[in-house]
Amino acid sequence: MAKKVTSEKATSETKMIKSDTKKLAKSKTQTLAQSDVKKINMSKTRAKKIKHSYKVKDAENALLLKLKDGDVVIEMYPDAAPNHVARIKELVRAGFYNGLKFHRVIDGFMAQTGCPYGTGTGGSGKKLKAEFNTKPHKRGTVSMARSMLPDSADSQFFICFADCPWLNGQYTVWGEVTSGMEYVDMIKRGEGANGMVADPDEIISMQVIADIDA
């Protein structure tokens, strides 16, 4: 049964299939004050070690996602989704994602995060015009969550546990996990049709790899 990724409210428990997708309410968004953002401190020695332990094509367009079980490297696609990549880097550099929850996690499908409320109802306050592209949704793909409106993606994104070809061309793919997918697999799963998680795992930190030893 096909599942559809959205920024829908946690109260919705109805399954979605390709032939019968439901309409979703527009997500609420709010810009967070700098004082509300969690900061992560790291020694310069450890930072340099981490930066050079991963071989990425372009450190400016690669992220280090730190989870409870280990470090994950995401290489981004600035050519396929330039505006989304630029916005994700802006949010990462502001510390927006540090401490945010994986509020919706469906086994065999995906793990979704990026809501400042931890409910799937919020964002950063800036909607993005869709940049649908030819990148496939496969295991390790990182793509933007949205409502039924194409240009409604904000800060929420999901990482695919498996190939999800029914999503191709309908969501903006902006990156791919190139290291540490085994740690993504360890993210706590949710319950019910909508995959909402009780006491969810969190993003410990996200950094642009080029910035790690800055």
Structure description:
With 214 residues, the protein is an alpha+beta fold. Helix content is 12%, strand content 18%. The protein is built from three helices and eight strands. The protein has an eight-stranded antiparallel sheet with strand order 3-4-6-5-7-2-1-8. A hairpin with a 2-residue loop joins strand 1 (62-67) and strand 2 (70-76).
Summarize the structure.
With 214 residues, this protein is an alpha+beta fold. The chain has helices spanning 44-53, 82-93, 181-184; strands at residues 62-67, 70-76, 104-106, 110-113, 141-144, 157-160, 173-179, 205-208.
**The level-1 CATH class:** Mainly Beta
Q: What is the CATH third-level topology name?
A: Cyclophilin
What Rg is obtained from the alpha carbons, in whole angstroms?
A: 16 Å
CATH superfamily: Cyclophilin-like
Strand order of the largest sheet: 3-4-6-5-7-2-1-8
Mean pLDDT: 84
CATH architecture: Beta Barrel
What's the number of helices? 3
**Portion in helices:** 10-25%
Overall SS class: alpha+beta
Q: How many distinct beta strands?
A: 8
Structural descriptors:
8-stranded antiparallel sheet; alpha+beta; globular; 214 residues; Cyclophilin; 12% helix
Produce the secondary structure layout.
Elements: H1 44-53, E1 62-67, E2 70-76, H2 82-93, E3 104-106, E4 110-113, E5 141-144, E6 157-160, E7 173-179, H3 181-184, E8 205-208
Antiparallel strand pairs: 1-2, 1-8, 2-7, 3-4, 4-6, 5-6, 5-7
